[in-house]
Design a protein that fits this description.
Strand content: 15-25%
CATH superfamily of the largest domain: PAS domain
Structural class: alpha+beta
CATH topology of the largest domain: Beta-Lactamase
CATH class of the largest domain: Alpha Beta
Order of helices and strands: HHEEHEEHEEEHHHHEHEEHEEHHEEH
């Protein structure tokens, strides 16, 4: 039999409630009985003492049977619930008014009698002569003849007649009332408990329905915004579980969209790389084939021109392959920045020297703007040189003749701010979204397969920094990033970015 959680909880609660009510009823009945015995014994504690003081039951010759029988008969007529017995010093019954054959034991344990005479706490139960193993409350008093102990007067306070009436229900009205009240309380508690379980498990049922509708193989659906868990309800495990599930569902949905976007970007990247590889390879193949077929008819000048074009196309293919390999190493965590403190101004001068001839050939002016207190930066020297090289290469390709490229360094607290700007056409607003994540394409011309800015973005990510495209009046494209000036800050930023520097992360 398969039961729901509500049914199982209700069943367990009902069983526990029945056990608790049964235990409570037993304890109440037991307590009531013990209280009754205590009251009866307390009221009649000195009964045997009064009887022994006012009546002569023994003389110098021993027991007086007629006097004992007469006295015991009168006492049992006045109070049918009492039974009177005469015991010797060993506890043996030597006199009673019990009918023939009603006494089941001839010996009474004297230990309870001694406890009663010493005044111990009540109730104290003693042997019932009319039962083989029964015990009842009693009253007792010692008897003496000529100043010597002669036995005990033993009075059973709740005798057979009282037991007979109790069995007939004459004294069970209070007990029945108690049991009825307990049963009524148990019923009300059961109804309240079942209602409470239904209310408590209702959020769990809703959560179950939500979970059952979740298909791991389907496209994740963004859940409705979860209601914020108040501090007062922070201990509600079901509410916390519901909020946690909705957050997990939202994260899965976001991760699915991110993976879809990354997959699309990789598809675009592969398509662009394939196109950019195909063009120079086709040109290289064509010129090499021409040299092969027309080698005998070509002049030395044509042969050198064809070889120069082929070499240029070969360098393009090699540069694209190198950029692609570099990007793969960066995005899959194979490159770890080695932090060191270096002169940023010296690095900028080296980069300027690298592009000086190319800038002169294109009639582009290179300018540098240094703040006097800018000295060092803490980063990977080789990777930062690659960043500046890619930015300058990008600027040179899109700056028209007569334009200029400017690099400025400015301190910003514990960081130094680097800005590279040009006087080119800039980047259109529709191309800015995903500029550092997608291959850059402007006017049908891509540089290095459009991987340069993506490599820059990834290198700065490894340093815990980011690059921004900013708007500068009178300028074209302006890129800005910052580097830490002390090793402690740089190390902290690099450690913070380690989640990005793992295999499989984009």
């Amino acid at each position: 039999m398969r039961l729901t959680l509500t049914q199982r909880l209700s069943l367990v609660f009902a069983v526990l409630l029945m056990l608790c009510c049964g235990t409570s009823a037993w304890l109440q009945v037991r307590s009531s009985q013990m209280h009754e015995l205590e009251v009866v014994q307390g009221l009649s504690r000195n009964l045997a003492q009064h009887i022994a003081h006012d009546t002569v039951l023994m003389d110098a010759n021993g027991l007086m049977p007629d006097a004992v029988r007469e006295l015991f008969g009168k006492l049992m007529q006045v109070n049918p619930s009492v039974e009177v017995y005469l015991l010797d010093t060993e506890g043996t019954i030597v006199g009673s008014a019990a009918p023939e054959g009603r006494i089941r034991r001839q010996q009474v344990d004297l230990a309870p009698i001694q406890r009663l005479l010493r005044g111990n706490a009540l109730p104290i139960l003693g042997d019932d002569p009319r039962s083989a193993d029964g015990r009842k409350v009693f009253s007792a008093a010692p008897l003496q003849v000529n100043g010597k102990p002669a036995g005990y007067l033993y009075v059973v306070l709740l005798g057979e007649e009282r037991d007979r009436l109790a069995e007939q229900g004459a004294t069970s009205a209070a007990l029945n009332t108690a049991l009825l009240s307990i049963a009524l309380v148990a019923l009300l508690c059961l109804i309240a408990g079942l209602t409470a379980f239904a209310l408590i498990t209702r959020p769990l049922r809703r959560l179950t329905e939500t979970v059952s509708q979740f298909d791991i193989d389907a496209v994740p659906v963004s859940p409705t915004a979860p209601a914020p868990v108040e501090k007062a309800a922070s201990h509600d495990e079901i509410a916390v579980l519901d909020a946690a599930f909705r957050q997990m569902q939202a994260r899965l949905s976001e991760q699915w969209r991110s993976l879809t976007r990354q997959d699309q970007e990789r598809r675009e990247l592969v398509a662009n790389i394939s196109h950019d590889l195909r063009t120079p390879l086709a040109s290289l193949h064509g010129y090499l084939e021409t040299l092969s077929l027309k080698d005998a008819t070509l002049s030395p000048a044509d042969r050198r021109r064809y070889l120069g074009i082929a070499l240029d196309q070969s360098r393009k293919v090699g540069g694209l392959a190198q950029s692609l390999l570099e990007l793969v190493r960066l995005e899959h965590g194979f490159v770890q920045p080695v932090l060191e403190c270096f002169s940023l101004t010296d690095l900028v001068q080296d980069v300027f020297q690298k592009f000086e001839l190319t800038a002169e050939a294109r009639r582009v002016e290179l300018k540098a703007s240094f703040t006097p207190n800018v000295s060092t930066a803490c980063a990977d020297l080789g990777l930062i040189e690659r960043v500046l090289t890619n930015l300058f290469d990008n600027a040179l390709r899109h700056t028209p003749p007569g334009g200029e490229i400017e690099l400025s360094l400015r301190p910003q607290g514990s960081f130094v701010e680097v800005t590279v700007s040009d006087t080119g056409p800039g980047i259109a607003p529709e191309l800015r979204e995903g500029l550092f994540l997608r291959p850059f394409n402007m006017g049908g011309a891509r540089r290095d397969g459009g991987l340069g800015l993506r490599i820059v973005h990834r290198i700065l990510q490894l340093h815990g920094r980011d690059i921004q495209l900013i708007d500068s009046p009178g300028r074209g494209a302006s890129f800005r990033f910052s580097l830490a000036v002390d090793e402690r800050t740089a190390s902290a930023m690099a450690v913070h970015s380690m989640n990005l520097n793992t295999p499989g992360q984009a």
